[in-house]
Design a protein that fits this description.
DNA polymerase, domain 1; four-stranded antiparallel beta sheet; DNA-binding; five-stranded mixed beta sheet; 16 helices; alpha+beta; Alpha-Beta Plaits; Dna Ligase, domain 1
DNA sequence: TCTGGGGTCCTAGGACCC
DNA sequence: TCTGGGGTCCTAGGACCC
């Protein structure tokens, strides 16, 4: 009988990251319902249709950069018949959730990193097994949701980011790239530019370049403790990750987010305390609802206002915070705090361009002091607060103006500070805007949201 | 004329205490 | 009158990310 023990078994990796990254995510979401836009240049714009936040490959090829203000590329848009959309975040978030839920059916351990990216974790697998799982993920997401994706495979998150970058940019990988093979990894890192590494931004890149570092391989080979002292623990972790060591702490797993922010730039400048107040109270109410959606409570409420960065004269910015005695999720409490704070920071005579409300010191429970707390705020009062907020949320869903707090001002007035002229329909989140399809016999039917 | 929004983590420096 | 140093906590601001 043949001795199988001498046959080399493929190496098993104890933990492998598969980073799934959606290609041109916002543009891809718009294209799901507009197949006529395949192969055509498409842009998605920021709030108030101010600047570019997503570009199709055709737009990238025209040299239009991320973040450029729209008024600077008006001519290009006309000349190349670029199709522009206002950002439809409800749609993108809904598509994102569908993708993440689908991923969980393939591998249970999924760390959602952003609206268009997630790290799926697979354990005790060979390189070949990891690769085939990644291919299955790609095929499933593309077929079931219709969003094209790239996947990077590696033993650390930073390397997985590099792999997904290559999967996206270099056609020979066909959308899936693995850096598990040490020889390939060495070869890739030897010409991978520093500034493309996750965690190395403009400033760090400049500093490192000045000290003679050019490539990921050079950084990976540098003296760790020395670099940690000279730069920071953050860069040190990146170096470890480049060497295949899993050094960046888990992103998810019971992690409670640290703050909820709601802020906007205004299409038209605000001048009076009344205008500023309406904006801030409206932001406070929205932040409060987000808080309740996440089943969280906040203890610190902050507000800020500022004039435009882009004008030289009469600049002003200010912010103030208030810490409550007890955590809350009641919009009425939040708005009272906002009212108090805005009076402290508002100064007449300025043209306000942006304002925001931040909720922080978030917790999953209402009070850390238990009994003590209940003595001061009877349980029935808390139950009443919950009930009022439930009603408020129920009747205020999806932008409905049926019920809102007085301080927010009327919904009609609110329109003055938001502008989305190129918004696509709420295809997936509003029954009135479901996509329609036409059958061969010309009868019109609606997709059923099943 | 027109320039987004929402996050995280780290560090340096000040206040305060012993 | 001379005049230390270490620890901790908090905050503002920087850098980075998508």
């Amino acid at each position: 009988m043949e001795d199988l023990s001498v046959v080399p078994q493929p190496e098993k990796y104890s933990k492998v990251y598969l980073l799934l990254d959606c290609n041109n995510f916002f543009v891809s979401c718009e294209r799901i319902f507009r197949p006529d836009l395949e192969k055509r240049p498409v842009l998605v714009l920021s709030n108030n249709d101010g600047c570019v936040v997503a570009r199709s490959a055709e737009v990238k090829a025209l040299g239009i950069k991320m973040g450029v203000p729209v008024f600077k590329i008006k001519d290009l848009i006309t000349k190349h018949h670029i199709v522009c959309f206002s950002s439809n975040f409800n749609l993108y978030l809904d598509i994102s959730n569908r993708i993440m839920r689908l991923l969980e059916t393939i591998t249970p351990e999924v760390l959602v990193y952003s609206v268009d990216e997630a790290f799926a974790v697979v354990r005790e697998v060979t390189a070949a097994e990891a690769f085939s799982t990644a291919c299955r993920m790609k095929k499933t997401v593309e077929r079931s949701i219709g969003v094209p994706v790239s996947i990077g495979i590696a033993s650390s998150k930073t390397l997985a980011k590099i792999a997904s970058h290559l999967a996206k940019k270099q056609s020979q990988y066909e959308g899936v790239c693995s850096l598990l093979d040490p020889l390939l990894r060495t070869r890739i890192l030897a010409d991978f530019p520093l500034k493309e590494i996750w965690g190395i931004g403009r400033k760090l890149n400049e500093r490192l370049q000045n000290e003679g570092f050019q490539t990921a391989a050079q950084l990976a080979a540098a003296d760790g403790p020395k670099m940690k002292k000279r730069y920071s623990v953050v860069l040190y972790r990146t170096m470890q990750e480049l060497n295949g060591i899993d050094a960046i702490e888990e992103l998810a797993e019971g992690h409670v987010q640290q703050q909820i922010m709601w802020s906007r730039s205004f299409r038209d400048r605000l001048y009076t305390l009344e205008e500023v107040s309406q904006a801030l109270c409206s932001f406070g109410a929205q932040a409060g609802r987000r808080l309740r959606d996440l089943h969280l409570y906040c203890r610190i409420i902050s507000v800020y206002i500022r004039t435009s960065y882009f004008v030289q004269d009469k600049q002003y910015q200010a912010g103030e915070s208030l810490r409550l005695d007890h955590p809350t999720s009641d919009s009425r409490v939040i708005l009272c705090a906002v009212e108090v704070l805005q009076r402290k920071i508002y100064r007449p005579g300025f043209a306000y361009a942006k304002a925001g409300v931040v909720l922080s010191e978030l917790s999953t429970t209402r009070g850390h002091q238990g009994d003590l707390f209940l003595k001061e705020n009877s349980a029935s009062e808390l139950a009443q607060s919950d009930r009022v907020m439930e009603l408020l949320d129920h009747y205020g869903r999806h932008g409905s103006a049926a019920l809102y707090l007085g301080a927010q001002g009327s919904q009609l007035q609110k329109k003055a500070f938001s502008d989305k002229r190129l918004l696509s329909p709420a295809y997936t989140t509003n029954f009135a805007e479901l996509p329609e399809i036409f059958c061969a016999d010309k009868t019109k039917i609606r997709h059923n949201k099943s």
